[in-house]
Specification:
Length: about 325
């Protein structure tokens, strides 16, 4: 599974520009699905329903395949590139880092001298240097997009990448698809686009699929680092996948939470309960689709989300696959 994770995380596919990652995932999931389609927003929808029975539901599972990135706004006469953010990028995680444009060109991010060095600079102080000396010779143009450039790193139990959010969710969903054969449900495995700019892909996919039940698979923050931003965040790396109770954009359906907890306990899978005060996932868009859908989220605890070095625990990842397979393998009883 580590090979699959490495393949997925190293592909640059910022929000709205997911073609490359979509084609890689299409080739991996086509043999695992009964039908694979793409919709106008670029969502990849893989249906698996060979064993669907009358007790089964239509279930939408969503993992987003876009990542945060940058977009060129201006190039000066000396070839220095100014940019804006695509999704939740913060300036202090950019400085000294590198980016890769979709045409393969690499640039380094640096900054103008600060008036007050004690203050974190704003985006207008930052620029990208692509090693060119004029606007004419600059290999990118206004509107071009880039993703952060960092190699995948395997520390053994812990894995690091610039795009765990949410390629790790895509990897969990793909691994689970390999084991969905006996599912009584019609499963719509959606690899969604444009999550980082406002859950846009999942919004249209959920309308089209019109599910009876929906789960997102995405990352969540942890409270286990020195002086965490939220001292009361209970989630830690290495204590199992998290079952979302609420986040900044949704309250999970309590019946869905209870079903997930019961299933984990029955199968002896460690889990944590998640309350995330900021941020949200595709689950929000699915919950609010059409007349409303019972929805929840299976979260992979992740440190340093939206930095170029997002860290997960491989044990949590493997338990997330097991829990997802377990959840999809039996009739669902919401109570
Ligand atoms: Co994100
Ligand atoms: Zn995410």
């Amino acid at each position: 599974m580590k090979n699959l994770i490495q393949t997925l995380v190293e592909i640059p596919s910022p929000s709205g520009y997911e073609a490359q990652i979509r084609e890689v995932i299409r080739s991996v999931v086509t043999p695992l699905a009964d039908e694979v389609t793409t919709d106008p927003l670029g969502n990849l929808i893989a249906r698996k329903s060979a064993q669907a029975s009358p007790q089964g539901l239509k279930i939408m599972l969503s993992a987003h395949i876009d990542e945060i990135g940058l977009m060129v706004t201006h190039i000066d006469d000396n070839g220095f590139v100014r940019f804006t953010n695509l999704g939740g990028v913060r300036p202090h995680t950019c400085i000294g880092g590198r980016v890769r444009f979709l045409n393969g060109r690499i640039g380094v991010i640096s900054m103008e001298p600060l008036d007050d060095p004690a203050k974190v600079p704003t985006f207008d102080k930052l620029y990208i240097d692509l090693g060119c000396s004029s606007r004419q010779s600059c290999p990118v143009k206004v509107g071009d997009v880039a993703a952060f450039e960092r190699p995948f790193t395997d520390l053994g139990d812990r894995l690091i990448s610039k795009a765990m959010d949410d390629r790790i969710g895509a990897a969990v969903l793909i691994e689970a698809m390999r084991q969905f054969d006996a599912s009584p449900h019609q499963l719509y495995c959606v690899f969604s686009t444009q999550e980082e700019v406002g859950l846009r892909g999942a919004t249209t996919a959920a309308y089209a699929v019109n599910p009876d039940l929906a789960l997102a698979i995405d990352v969540t923050g942890t409270g286990d680092t020195p002086r965490p931003a939220n001292l009361r965040m209970e989630v830690s790396l290495g204590k199992g996948p998290a079952i979302k109770v609420r986040d900044g954009g949704m309250l999970s359906d309590p019946r869905v939470v209870n079903w997930m907890v019961r299933t984990a306990e029955k199968a002896n899978i460690p889990y944590q309960l998640e309350i995330l005060e900021g941020g949200t996932t595709d689950a929000r868009a699915m919950q609010l689709a059409r007349a409303g859908v019972p929805a929840g989220c299976l979260s992979i605890p992740t440190r340093y989300i939206h930095s170029p070095s997002e860290m997960v625990d491989f044990g949590d990842v493997q338990y997330a696959v097991r829990l997802l397979v377990e959840l999809m393998s039996h009739p669902v009883d919401l109570e």
